[in-house]
Amino acid sequence: MAEENQRDFKRSGSAGRCIEARVVIIALPEEYQYLKPDDVLKKFTDFFKDKYGVECVAALHHNKSQTNYHIHLVFAERKELSEPQVKIASRNMFYDENDRHCRTKKEILDADGNMRKGCYIIPKGESYSGHYFEPKNPYFKSRKFLQELKEGYTELINEQIGREEDRLEVYRKDSIYLPTKKIGKNNPKEEFIRKNNEEVTKWNYYAAYAAEFMSEDHVKEVKHKEVVAPVKESIASGNDVSAYGQIVNRAVRTLNNIVKEWLRIPKEYRPEAKTDLFHQLIDYCRAKLKQPRDRGWER
Length: 299
Prior knowledge:
Elements: E1 6-12, E2 18-27, H1 37-52, E3 56-61, E4 70-76, E5 80-88, E6 93-95, E7 101-102, E8 120-122, E9 127-133, H2 143-158, H3 190-210, H4 216-236, H5 243-264, H6 276-287
């Protein structure tokens, strides 16, 4: 389920009021193309309405090659007030061509005494202003909302997935894995992103392999020291974005060396995660990519 793509747009309601909304894109497994579209859309919109209490609509889309089945779900950022707060004109109200309120009718007349084009009058007793919706819910722009929505829709999607191995999982920043990046249509950086994704896939494979021998905390430490921290440093120094793939590639080879060394160390001497000794092991295994070093970390 992909929800990274979130856009703002505005549309006019039936009463002429401006309705602000957002759209999320939900990627569906290809199994969903065999389900009734109306049932799928109802299930996903009902889930959103029940959970967040705002109105939403959705539409299903497929690309020409029938390989990218997804939902565009549009939702309101505001709840509609049960009782609109409407202001009623206590006297005739005059507005010029710039929608500026004028005190007297004379201010909107031309030299011949006729009302200028674009000016208008709101008669006494009619509404001239109103609030129909609650303030925007800031939660809809938070990272917590995005994560919660991903988890909720992933669980909903998995209800229709038969085989356990085909079920989707939500990427978590605090996990041992790295996320791949979606390649959009006609993306000029397609080849670059594809190569980066290949390196990330390798990392995820070896991270899962490493977790069979050491704790996930150990693997997370390697991920932070060999990927997260170097990427931050690279961005801060203004290096080319191509450095990301190189960083991940080096991290994969370092992790591979760590696993080999780990299996050589007797269990009772294996260092705990987040200790200086384990960090020395990481440094040693990274250095081995260039040349062997004295095993000072073992002493």
